[in-house]
Amino acid sequence: MKPTPDVFITGRSFLEDEVKGKTVVVIDVLRASSTIITAIQNGARGIIAVEDMGTAGRIAQNLDQSSYLLCGEKDGEKIEDYHLGNSPAEYEEDVVKGKTLILTSTNGTPTLVRCSGAKEVIIGSFLNAKAVTDYLRTVENEIIFVCSGWKSRLSFEDTLCAGYMLQQLVGTVLPDSSPDGACVAFALYQQFGKDVAGSVKNSNHAERLRKIGFSEDIAYCCQMDITDTIPVMKDGVIANKL
Ligand code: MLT
User: Fold this and answer.
1) Alpha-carbon gap, residue 63 to 60, rounded angstroms
2) Residue 88: CB within 6 Å of ligand 1?
3) CATH architecture assigned to 6-240
4) Is 73 in the pocket of ligand 1 (CB under 6 A)?
5) How far is the CA of 172 from the centre of ligand 1 (A)?
6) 8 Å CB contact between 238 and 46
7) Is the CB of 30 under 6 A from ligand 1?
8) 125 contacts 29 by C-beta, under 8 angstroms
9) Roughly how many angstroms between the first and final C-alpha of the chain, as a whole number?
10) Which H, E and C letters describe the chain, residue by residue?
11) Which tens digits make up the pLDDT trace of 5-31?
């Protein structure tokens, strides 16, 4: 029998070697994963997730100006002179279709970069959780949910989402000898899963986003199972799995 998937609680709480050979689901509910899923669903040609603005600038220099958009945030706010911030609401079809997006964010994109040595890197959130877990059932590799967290700390919404996906995979009883990270995420979902939107509203990052005017993003990102889009990162570029 396959081991219960582990849950890494933040994007910095593991060694990069630990994801080698595994299928990894990177979760940043508020908001990088939700934004990536929305952008891919709306026809973005590809997304290059980078660690910082310097890398984003260097990549942009080698691309035709009409083919890409510079996208991202620092502490939630759009980066000056970038085309787009990190609000999924900005990633409408008429804006992103056919474009390459170069995306940098505080926690989500550095986590993706740290996972790039995995066998397979999938981007998950509440928006596509069912599609992701349907796919994971077909996977033979070991599975790890990697929560991005916030600056090396746990994020309630990412751990809750990992717990939701875990429950979709293993059912309502977690097998004995499951890893600690899985136990924590599973228990969190059992406690708060009845009201995902209501509980995420009280999280630290939701509070931060409200303060800078992104209340609507919180409600958007808490929608469950609204899309079958499964973004996967291959050779540094994120595109639709199908
Ligand atoms: C991050 O990468 O930390 C986030 O997605 C921050 C945000 O834009 O809300």
Assistant:
1) 5
2) no
3) Alpha-Beta Complex (3.90)
4) yes
5) 30
6) yes
7) yes
8) yes
9) 27
10) CCCCCEEECCCCCCCHHHHECCEEEEECCCCHHHHHHHHHHCCECEEEEECCHHHHHHHHHCCCCCCEEEEEEECCEECCCCCECCCHHHCCHHHHECCEEEEECCCHHHHHHHCCCECEEEEECHHHHHHHHHHHCCCCCCEEEEECCECCECCHHHHHHHHHHHHHHHCCCCCCCCCHHHHHHHHHHHHHHHHHHHHHCCCHHHHHHHHCCCHHHHHHHCCCCCCCCCEEEECCEEEECC
11) 999 999 999 999 999 999 999 999 999
Indicate the pLDDT class of residue 1, thresholds 50, 70 and 90.
confident
| The model scores a pTM over 0.90 | yes
Decide: 163 in ligand 1 pocket, CB within 6 A: no
Query: Residue 217: which of 202, 240, 201, 232 has the closest Cα?
Result: 201
153, two tokens: 């700390």
Residue 242 predicted with pLDDT over 90? no
The tokens for 133 are 């877990």
Residue 107 near ligand 1, beta carbon < 6 Å? yes
Do the beta carbons of residue 121 and residue 230 sit within 8 Å?
no
21 CA → ligand 1 middle, Å = 27
Determine whether 230 is exposed, middle or buried from the number of CB atoms within 10 Å of its CB (0-12, 13-18, 19+): buried
Q: To which residue do tokens 């009409």 refer?
A: 66
Q: Report the separation in Å between the CA atom of 229 and the middle of ligand 1, taken as the mean of its atom positions.
A: 20
Atom from ligand 1 closest to the CA of residue 30: 9
- State in Å: Cα 75 to ligand 1 middle: 7
